[in-house]
Amino acid sequence: MELLIDNKNGSVWDMPVSSITWKTSRIGKAGTIDADLIIETPLKSPINNGDIIRITDGKNKVFYGYIFESSISADSKLSILAYDQTRYLMSNDTFVFAATTATAGIKKIASDLQLKIGTFEETGYKVPAVVEDDKKGLDVVSKFLDSTLIATNRNYVFFDDFGSLMLKNIENMKIAADDFYIGEESLLFDFNYKKSIDSETYNRVKLVQDNKDTGKREVYIAQDSQAIANWGRLQYFQKVDEKMTSAQIKDLLDRLIKLRNRETKSLKIDCLGHWKVRAGSFVLIYIEKLGIKEYFLVDECSHKWNEGIHTMNLDLKVI
User: Residue limits of the YqbQ/XkdQ domain (predicted)?
Assistant: First the structure.
């Protein structure tokens, strides 16, 4: 494990590492590094907020970001907190967009902040006009991606890859099973598997639209009677834009009931670590006793490296 700190003035220090925790989240959070270093003479290699931190492990490029906090104790342990560049999207601002794709909209937000942009895949679908006041940039990014998911059933993930912002379809984040998988005989320590209808599950969708010409409210409903009999009525309600046509509303109705009328399946696992895995990755999970052999999407990922031992905690979900 190599951890370099660059003070942007030409000095680069190779720091001795005691432990590292790297966390990524698929939605709404910046990637973080919590690291403990041992530094006997802090004045000879001072750590300042804003310094660049680069972490590699052999050929694996783990993290590139910026220090936001540091503290040192009497026993010479230096603790630092660093973020990748998505942290700069957590400031509030006003965002106004005419109808545009998530690709173009997110790229514009990042460009305005002069962030480094890598590969942005084309999402295709034009998200309706966006007007958001006093919102975090990262929340607006999530809104673009949520709208695209509902409209196209294509799921995209936005993340920082060693200093370059990326936008990728999750299908292109799949780790090949012959390269890496997690199972009872491969890496896995512990797991907790959950099926739920308590959140994100709806068997009745109700959309309403106010009609200024008639003074009435138009109501559109789609439901699954069998699912209602099994689970009780779980309703999703949304007021839609008055400019939407009846055909557009019915199309949205069909897409929402298809997307939401199902149990959510989630899995938490503890296992040996692999640097390829991050939030947004698709990973094959094989747990024979549960009859599970399928790809799960990584929602939250925490890598821990301590005294040469690399482990992971993963929050996963079925898509």
Answer: 20-317
Question: pTM of the full predicted structure?
Answer: 0.88
Beta bridge partner(s), residue 223: 204
Cα angle at 97 between 92 and 100, to 5 degrees? 125
Kindly calculate the radius of gyration of the chain based on its CA atoms and give it in whole angstroms: 23
Position 319 scores a pLDDT of: 77
Q: pLDDT, tens digit, for every residue of 294-314? A: 999 999 999 999 988 999 999
Find the angle CA(22)-CA(74)-CA(67) to the nearest 5 degrees. Answer: 30
In what helix (H) or strand (E) does residue 194 lie, and over which residues does it extend? strand 188-196
DSSP 251-282: HHHHHHHHHHSS-EEEEEEEEE--TT--TT-E
Which fold, 174-197+264-317? Answer: Elongation Factor Tu (Ef-tu); domain 3 (2.40.30)
Residue that wins the pLDDT comparison between 205 and 308: 205
Percent of the chain with pLDDT over 70: 99
CA-closest candidate to residue 199, choices 268, 142, 260, 144 = 260
Q: Are strands 130-136 and 126-127 parallel, antiparallel or unpaired?
A: unpaired
Spatial neighbors of 103 by CB under 8 A, at least 6 apart, are 120, 121, 122, 123, 167
Please give the single-letter amino acid code of residue 218.
E
Measured CA to CA, the distance from residue 114 to residue 5 in angstroms comes to: 22
SS3 291: coil
C-beta of residue 45 within 8 angstroms of C-beta of residue 67 = no
**104-128: per-residue pLDDT in tens?**
999 999 999 999 999 999 999 999 9
DSSP annotation of 316 reads E
Which two tokens mark 311? 């482990």
CATH 2.30.30.370 is right for the domain spanning 2-83: no
Q: Does domain 89-169 bear CATH number 3.30.43.10?
A: no
